[in-house]
NtaA/DmoA family FMN-dependent monooxygenase (Nocardioides daeguensis), 445 residues
Amino acid sequence: MSGMHLALDLSFAHTDGRWAMPGSWIGRDFPDVRSYMELAQMADRGGIDLLFFGDGSGIPSTWQGSRDAAVEWGVQWPRHDMSPVIAAMSTVTERVGFGLTYSSTFMHPFYVARLLNSLDHVTGGRIAFNVVASTRLADARNYGFDELLEHGLRYERMEEFIGVCKALWRSVEPDAIIRDRESRRFADPGKVHPIDHHGRFFDVAGPLASVPSPQVEPVLVQAGASPRGIEASASFADLVFGFGADLGAQQRHRRMLDDALVEQGRDPKRIGILWDLQAIVGVTDEEAETRKQTVLAAWTEEMVAVALSHNAGYDFSGLPSSFRLGDLREEIVKANATPAGLVGHLITEYGEDHLIDRAEFFEHGWRSATGVDHMLVGSAGRIADLLEENFAETGSRGGYMISSPLAFPSGYAAVVELLAAELRRRGALAEREPGQQTLRDVLCG
């Protein structure tokens, strides 16, 4: 059995009330880069493999067609482009990697390929690229779209997007750069190639006007949980993000991914899943439980509604007093929003024909938005026991993407200094092998 990898999800470390909780920075506010630099140093010392940033470019506005509630309560906003922050963090660390998110639904592959090549140089080969198919109207409208692209087309565009990026990253061969001072020849023209791509969504001539990066291409990450999303993951991902709500769902995802990988001619043993979870770690179980109550108290009903609607891309304010789960999924699909997330989990648990009332739906929504449905709470020893058991039952390939619902930085400090230290003491974490220089070596070697 291989050891587990640990990543920290910093996507919302500064939102959803965390900025005001006990243990938050005093005198430093987002986006102060010094906060992230200090956390990166702590993670580097603690053996964390990856610091991850999700992204969204719009303020949540799906709930009641207004962004006011999200603005007032700081729900999933503000969001900055974190590439400059990653560059700064890389200068004070040596080992930890950095995951950055861009949308294949809105962005152009040439721009993204060039940016990630540059960041891979700055970080010394420690970049991962999380490519997403966007499902949020707030984001779409900032890129000139009046409605969301149909679900299947989003994944077709993603696959073409990644194909273009990979071609661009390889358009300048690794040994193309000569730098011969005597002859003053800089590079071999025979090793610099156009890609001449003409597809359904993109036309790109290439080549990429950049020096090949340390990893050639970043570690490619994808998080699609639908059958179409898993198919996309199997076609190109080096690492998959999975949702860890329950063991049965995790095992189904692992089986479906393995089958899809085999169909693509790829080895399932080489593709790990980082399971998403929230953790509240305390010195004792009692301390952790007390800290959990601060999280639940920080979320209002309006914050929950905003988060649910934004993440689904569907306005839940118009729900009737009672409804069938299958009917709700059909409505979400018609709106080109995502039927995964809360609605998908409820259908998995109760079935499409389950009749649910509005109050019950939002009670489940509270658990989903706050993360209670996939939150581990307890001492480092208790949580380490659970993770070791879960890791074995889900195939012993990958690890965990851990976020903290507590204040930044104290919640993450407990994950690193208590939980990661306990797992390392047990020998449960993946060991760094001699010669591992890049993030790809560490996560995919």
Remarks:
- The chain has one domain: 5-286+375-444.
